[in-house]
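In this section we walk through a basic example: taking a raw amino acid sequence and producing a predicted 3D structure, encoded as discrete structure tokens. The instruction is simple. Fold the sequence below.
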Amino acid sequence: MDFDDDDFRCTVTQYGMKESRQRLSDGKFHPEVTTKTVAQLENDTIRPAFKAAASRPKTVTAVIETSSSTPPEIVPVVGHLYLGPKIMEDVFRDGHKTAMRLSLTSSKMFKLVGDNINRWDFCAMAYVVEVPSSVMIVEVPQHTIGDILEAQKKYKLRLDSPEWKETRQRLESLQDFDGYKLRSIEMEQVFFQWARIWRAECLRVAGPYWATDDQEIDPLTTDRAKEWWKDDVNGINVMGSLEPLEKMWSANQFEGTKDKLHKMPISLAMESLFKLMAELHRARSHIEVLHLHKVPLLDRRMLAIILRGLPNVTMVGVYNCPLIHFGDVIPILDLIHDINNDRRKKNMPKIKAFDFFPHFNQGTPYAHENAATYGISWGPIEMDIAQRGFYAIILKAVLKSKGLGLDLLFSKDHAFMDYLAKVPNIPLGVYSFLDAVYRYIEVDRWAWDRGDIKLQAIYDMLKPVRVAVEKQKHVAHDWPKYYLKEMATTSGFFCCCSCGYQTFMEFFPAYSKNQLQPHKRACCACRLQIRLDAETDHLKAQKKGLLDKLCPDWEPKAFNQDAPLFRGGVGLIRLHSTETVRHMPDIVFAEGVDGDFGWTPYWQRLMRDAKLPHDSLVKLPRLEDVALDEATRRRWLDVIASAVREDVHRLGILELRKTFPTGSKRKGIPAYGPTREDGGAPDDLDEIQPPIPDERRYFFDYSTALKKARELLKEDW
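The resulting token sequence is shown next.
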């Protein structure tokens, strides 16, 4: 609360779980949250969605609300040579969903929308459409194996012939998508040839590495292999454990069914990212609206390089990019603040809108004992960290967004609100949380009952956290002890030693309340950020490691420039300290008041000297360097070569999984897949999720969220 005002001198009315639910049922949500009623959300959206998603198989198909028809008079206007691109600029400034709602009204409108903006095909490294428009859409089209193989049938060339290479290079120079198809087929052959070489030079005399006690590199492994693999023990052992590769291995994705989706190799994705950034630099003067859809290898650092290098961008949309997670919303908002500060000094337009859909983890796409949709993460995270952190990040983000005057991020019916509603959680949790935040920050300073209104808003804001992490018998009796003596008190406002923000104890781990050293408390927002950063599924660690090499001067633990919080929310969260260095206390041995000598008492200051997430966007390369600097270009080429090694390693693992399948013991050798957390299918549709490791409670998936919803319904909460 605002501890320097007189809010609590007025009468406080009784308020608890029952009263909170009654208030919600009797009224409506804040208009900025949703126009739907509680009953509509529960009956039309939440329950059916939870039930449908709780059953397998699962899909990631987005539900898009579309209007039934297009006004006939708008079609010729959108199709106008000069007016069309101008109209589309305004449409895409309002985010992806607005553009989709318009384009899906008719097949003719769909074509008109797509033909009036610049569309860059990430895979083909070329424009699908290039028009005089300030809108740039980067898309990653999905193709089946059969689609890619059509090019091989079309040109009827031998894979290793000079004619093949000449044709592929010619098509790439013409920006023909067939060039990407031929390159994809060619790269699978390259990976196989490397595997044949290293299988011979890394061969394990003792047998497959997982079937023996000795998992060290075989002494006969050649120095050339050790150098190429950079002494990667697992990579060398995987190659040395392969069966003889006389013909094409089964790991080649073009050897299987033609209906399977094509998987873009990491090395090709790295090359495509380089070409994208070079093109963005070339077109930097006229790009004002930028949408990035499902771009591989785009993490928050690459995004920072791009946005800092596009001086005229005023709207950015980031949608379901695999390396950008929910917690990244905080450093991205800080980035936008930093960019806008710099532009303000140069009298340049600022970034006014941010449309965001973080990567949504749908989970294993088929029935499996570990299969679960957590949304924010691939694997399970303890409830005490995830639930508190989820809402703490939302609180930070909404107040930073309002402090920046940023459009779209928390606008109803836009991408981020769709994401938050899709994450399995307490029914109406996100809606009631944001409703409470808005009620709090809009309280009239001169209202006689402002203290009562603020307390109720705080209670409703903390409710989704508490009903998930605390026992029901405790929250059922919140009035009067918790409500009046614990909630929103000075002693219940903790400072985080990682980010320096001060907020409610409910956003800190449960044990923080009794922690003897207050200066060592770390909030769950920071803890959740670092947990999401540390996930290793889909080769995230290896991909980020490659990106690390592109940022040699990056300072991972440096602090970004903090985006300002909305002033009206100072009673909910505030930046307490930006100090990062803790000096040794000046303790003196002196005589006390009782005449005895002893050490003078010392109280440790609260500051942010123990940063957890490596979310810094400081000292990154410039977009201009990526496009023009020769040293930076050589660094990218080296990283692309390293990415080839990751591709060969990944395919080697897939080959071992198929050679030594689960359920069989070939030549007395146990199955390979169960020896790995990913089931022997890294970055593959068959990659499995980690199991829940112990009896502790973990973040919701759809089935546990549905179970919790029934419990709350029974209590009428």
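Looking at the output, two observations stand out. The mean pLDDT is 90. The CA atoms of residues 591 and 597 lie 4 Å apart. In the next section we compare this with other chains.
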